[in-house]
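Moderator note: this is an archived Q&A kept for reference. The question asked for a predicted structure of one protein chain; the sequence and the answer are reproduced below.
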Amino acid sequence: MSPTPVCLTVSLPDQVLSVFLDGALERTLPVSTSVAPPSCAHGSGGTPWGLHEIADKFGDGEPRGTVFRGRVSTGKRFWELPPEDQEGNLITTRILWLRGVEPGLNSGVGVDSHDRYIYLHGTNHETRIGTPCSGGCVQLLNRDVEELFDLVPLGSLLLLERGLPDPGA
């Protein structure tokens, strides 16, 4: 598969997303991936690894902090919800839905990232960004997911790396 003009990588150990434009590192952003160990298996709660593409995008033009359910805007921002609704991880601001492109690893029966609803998205718990705290998705600061949404075209490639953390970090 050929590189796309915009390519992304996410280091699961380091909790960092890197944005490459035409092969050059443009920026890095802190993220949060799963509390559970990385896994491509359906029902694992783990962030899948391997090569993915941006399959779909939701939330264009919605105000920062908007909550989505089933990829549809609720019309409310997370701070407008009752406190008990704000306790869990909410999907906010923008959604970039991933599709695995490696059959048997992150695509196909029992391991399909798209069927697992694995997204890049904003969160109502921005203070947790940088530590594993999701149910499998890649969470970003709301401002960062807004910028990423506008920058990344459909079909762009994303590599989720499950390697070992950088000992110098």
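Archived answer notes: The chain has two helices and ten strands.
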